[in-house]
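Honest question from a wet-lab person: if I give you the sequences of every part of a complex, can you actually get the arrangement of the whole thing, not just the pieces? Trying it with mine:
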Amino acid sequence: MFGFPELKTSSSRANVSTGSLAKYVDPQQPPSKKKPYSVILNQPFNHTVQLQLPEALYDSIWSDVADKLPSVQYSRVIMPLSTLLEGEFFNLYIKTGNILMLSEGRPGIDDKYSLKDGVLRLDLAKEIYERCGLVGKVIQGGGRKHVKSRYAVEINLRLPSMLHGKKGFERIVWAFKNVLNSSRTWLFHDFEAALDSKVERPIAKHYPVTHICSPHLATSQAVLVPNLAHPHCTSSHDEFEHWSLETYEWLSLVAGGSPRVLREDTVDPFLSRYQVPDANAEKSLNLVTLTWVGLIPASWIRALFMLLSAKFPRLESHVGVHCFFALSDYAFKTASNSEMGGYTILCLADDPDSNGADADIVETQASKTTSHLESCYILWELMA
Amino acid sequence: MASNHSETTAAEVNNGAETTKPTSHSSSRSLTIRNPPYTYLHLILLTSTLSSSSQPPVDILTARTYLTSALSQYLGLTGTAIPIDFLKVEGGSLWIRVPREDEVALVGALSQWVGKDGDVSWRVKAKGEWLGSVVAGNGDHLFEP
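Yes, you can. This is the full assembly:
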C-alpha cells in the first residue's frame, strides 16, 4: 500500500531439533559429533553465554559446577597482522600452542581477520585483496549476482611449508608488511594460559588488557512458566512450531529481564499484549540467569554443558517441580553471508507431573520413571 | 449397541495413548522455522545534549507517545494501527516487538522523526527476528576500551 518492499520471506530461520541426552558422558572423551555437542563446537567465536535455571536447582548444583568449571579469560590487544608471524609468538602460539583471535570490524564492510586452530582467515575487500597478492576465494554477496566485491583468504599456518624462508610464506610476510600493515584491535584467547601463568607469554609484549569472564547473576522473582514439556511426536507440525517459537520467546524475555513474564506484571494491553503461553498463576518460579560476556571458546561452553548435564538426570529429589536449564550462546559474526548466529539448548527432566492429560497412566509407571529419569533436550539453531 | 461400540473405540484410543507415551520424549524430531511472526527491535531515545546533560530515563507511556507520533507523522492513521508490544523499558533503552510485516514501516517512521522541536529522536540499536540475539547484541562493545 505504501510502496514498501514486501517482506515475503525472511532470510532468518531457526532449526529446532529434539532428542534425548546420553545417560553417561565420559569426561575424558567428550563427544563432538553428536547433537547438541556438534552445534556447540561449530561456533568458535562467542561473545555472550547465558544460563537460565530455577533458583532451587541453582542452589543445589551451582556451587558444585562452579568448582569444577575451568576459569575463562580473554585479552584485548592492539597489534598488526605481521606480529602473528614473528618469532616467539608464531612458534609458541600457532605452531605448538593454540589460540583464538578475532579482529575488530563490521563483517562484510570492513576487513576482518580471525585465527582459529592455526588457520588464519582474512575477509578482504576487492581492492585490498588485489594488492596483497594472496590467493583466496570469492565471497558470495547477498545482493547483486556476479559482482565480486569481497574475497576470503584462508591460510593454514600449521602446514609444514609455513616456515620462514619458504617462498609461499615469504609472500604472506610481504603482504603483511606492505599491504595489511595497519594495527587492529584484537580479542585474544590462549587455550594454554592457565597452565603456566608465571612464565611471561609472548602476548605480554603488546600490553594486553586481560579480563576474566565471571558470570553476572540476575534473579527474576516469581516468573510465570509456560508448559515446557514439548508436544508429543504425534502432535501436528504446526503445534510443535508454535510451541518452539513461544518457548524461545519466553526464554529470551527471561534472559533479557523483561517484566512481562513476571506474575506481578500489570501492564495495559494497549502497551503490550504479550502473555506467557499456558501460564498458571499459582505456578511461578524464581529463575536465575547467569551471563558471561567475552571471547569465549566453544570448548569451555561444552565443558559447562557437560557439567550441567552430568548433574542433571540424578535429581530425583526435584521431581515434581519444574526441572530444566537453558543454555544460550551468541556468536560474533565473522562473515556477512548467512551463518549461525547463536543457539539455545533447553534441557528438561522428563517430568511426569507436566503431562496432566495422561496422569493416571503415568501414576502406574511413576516408580519406574523416577528410577531412570530420562532427560531430553530441545535445540534452537538460529541463522541470521 | 451403539454405546458398546463407542466404548471400544474409547478403549482403543486410550490404549494408543499408552503405547505412544513412553516414546514421546526419547524420539527426536526436527523442523525449520521460516518466516517467524515478529520482529524485535532495541531502540534508544536520543536527546539533544543542549537541553540536558545526562540521558533522562524514558517511561513506557512517553515512549508510546513518541512512537505513535512518529508513526502518525509518517503513515497517518494507518501508521498508528501498527501494534507495538513493549517488552522492556530501561533507562533510555526500549525493547519492543512488532509483526514482521510492519518492521519496514516502523523503521522508516522512526528514522525520519524528531520530536519536541528537534530535541528527541529514535535510534535503532539492534533488530532481528530472534529476541535472544537482539538482547545479546553483536559483541562489538568488547573491542572498545
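Two things worth pointing out. Confidence is low (pLDDT under 50) at residues 1-26 of chain B. Strands of chain B lie at 30-34, 38-47, 85-90, 93-99, 114-115, 120-128.
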